[in-house]
Amino acid sequence: MAEKSCTYSLPIGPIHPALHEPFLFQFQIDGERIKKVDLIGGKVHRGIEWMGMRRNPIQVIYVAERICGICSCSHAFTYCRAVEDAADIDVPERAQYIRAIIAELERMHSHLLWAGVAAHEIGFDSLLYYTWRAREGVMDLLELISGNRVNYGMLMIGGVRRDLSDETLSKIKDAMDRFDPVADKLIYLFLEDKTVKLRTQDVGILSFNDAIKLCALGPTARASGVRKDVRQDQPYCAYADLEIRAITPENFDKETVGDVYDKTLVRLLEVKQSIGIIKQCVDSLPSGDLLAEPKLVKILATLKKVNNEGLGRVEAPRGELVHWVRLQESTNLRAWKARSPTYNNVLPWQPMLIGEQIADIPIVAASTDPCFSCLDRAVVTKNGKSEIITGEELHRLSLEKTRRLKKWG
Amino acid sequence: MGLDFFLFSILFVFLTMGLGLVVALFIRGIDRKLTAHMQARIGPPLRQPFLDIGKLFGKDTIIPENSIPWLYNLAPIACFASAATLLFYIPLGSLDSVLAGRGDLVLLTYLLLLPSLALTLGGFASGSPYATVGAQREMVTMVSYEFPIIIGVVALAWQMTMLFPFDPNLYAFSLSAFSAHLVWAEVGLFGWVGLALILFVFLLVTTGELAKVPFDVGEAETEIAGGLLAEYSGRNLALFYLGDCIKAVAMGGIIVAIFFPFNLSPLLSISGLQANAVDLLFFFVKIIIVLFFSLMLIRVGVARLKINQVVDVQWFTFSLICIVGLLLVWVDPWLSPVLGILGG
Fold this sequence. Notes:
The complex is a heterodimer.
Chain A: E1 8-12, E2 24-30, E3 33-40, H1 48-52, H2 57-65, H3 72-87, H4 93-121, H5 125-146, E4 155-156, E5 159-160, H6 166-192, H7 194-200, H8 208-213, H9 218-222, H10 230-233, H11 260-283, H12 296-304, E6 307-316, E7 319-328, E8 335-339, H13 341-344, H14 349-353, H15 361-367, H16 372-375, E9 380-382, E10 385-387, H17 391-408
Antiparallel strand pairs in A: 1-2, 2-3, 4-5, 6-7, 7-8, 9-10
Helix pairs in contact in A: 2-3, 3-4, 4-5, 4-11, 4-15, 5-6, 6-11
Chain B: H1 3-38, H2 48-58, H3 69-87, H4 105-125, H5 129-163, H6 175-180, H7 189-209, H8 221-224, H9 234-259, H10 265-268, H11 272-301, H12 307-343
Helix pairs in contact in B: 1-9, 1-11, 2-9, 3-4, 3-9, 4-5, 5-7, 5-12, 7-9, 7-11, 7-12, 9-11
């Protein structure tokens, strides 16, 4: 009998219970197998960069924090580093350590959130509740430090806004001691449970070569064996003093496969790593100033004179986050660009999804920990309809713009 | 059969139906509360399923544009009706069922299949890709859980005929046979183990039969957005919900009637209406206990399987366990006495 191919299309999104933000996967399915997938973004663009370019550099910190609800501190952190890079501002040592503590707490809660979502995607709701209860402890800690659960408002150009008292520090340390066994328990539950293994092993495999070729970032790349971590490759702030090694499945004496199981493993091990980093930072927290310049008006005055561009890179929970700013002797930013790790992790979905079953879509899609509000930086709408710009068209538009600029010059 | 009997039957049908509905929804409330507590949540109040049903009946029923309306609307009614019919065959404690003697275990296994079949039809009729995928999955699951159930039923009936070959009133497949002769009582060690294996599979298959985690592939909220039920709303959804609740009670009731047909009244030495009431209550308590082990405990402890894994588990593993149970029951009359002689 001749092989019959009968595919039908199945849209997942823009609104779907498996996705926690709007995004569209257009699948071509044969039976239960995925034959083709088209990834369509631009469903949740909010024009945040445009908003930022109409505000002064300090106001933009708070706009940056609201790019994402999970890695809120990472965006503010990266943005501050970009501005500090442009204006050559040195951050005091104590502030650098506090920044690291906040960033690591954020990584912990982000990874725990992810693990809970992953458990929910495979229908294991008890594990979701257990994981999120652990996460709640981290959120409480962040609230204790900053007074906020989601947008901490800790970062400032040239340092941090709040100090950690000795009492807070001892509380953080106690909490970290309490978290150690919880993290071990979670590692045990996620890696040893039979049904979780059935759903995650050999599912959504991203090979080492694909991870390199498609520029995957963060835990997604590390699970495929790519030792890539900004904290290790270009140590910034307190990380330079701490010996940080990127975590791959080899750290667990496990062969690297690059499946969802490995991605879970890497994230949970990173939770352990973060606990260690926070403990180290608390122990060796240096004394000193919190800000390079405590008077905000003075910072703004300095930044007004700067004519330079700056680049900030931070290892956010989902991977390397890049912010680029252009200051041009004016009150407001001349240009601001944020490139989130999800942007790089969109293309790896193709090799991960093709050939898998419909049932694997949610967990594979979730396995890169996508954040679409981070991702969506541009959308073209005309007469109420959104369009997709192809590579050639983008090139043509760029040439036109250059010609236009030349005419003005 | 006079008019009296006919009227009495009608009354009994309505009573059974009303009681069945209330108890089914109440048991669903207990299910949700217990599950919530096991997951470190508070959970909804016990009356939540009643409120849900009330609310659903008050909502608009939306019929999708590219559905087949008559089939789409018929499916929930068929699901509810076939589930409700199940109630009339299950002996309620010491009371005989309404239709006692008019149907047997074989009929019950097919009646158990009908609600799922109605769901599948409704899924295909809704014209949504999610519902179609869900319906395809549901069909495959149906085929895979039917096999172990039938093997188990055959093993039980076989045991009855082997133990009581000379009982002229005994009809091996009928539920009254199981209440008349306790299955555990007259078998040796091998038979006991065999029966335990079959009970074990029945408890696990209940989860598949009721489409709950880990076998809820047909609905799979995070994968295909509710699958079969993706397009259903209002009254239609309420009927499916009721059908599902009743089916849970019926499945629990069948297991109780076969394996645990004990009654409290002989122990308390009461008789008459009082005894019936006590036995009825005890029967519902037994159902809750059975459902606790078969539905709730499993549901909170595992992840959802994929369709191929569901078939692997149900078609191969469960059937294999059932066949082993059947063989043990079969060899029991010869081997257990031998064991007894050796031991003695």
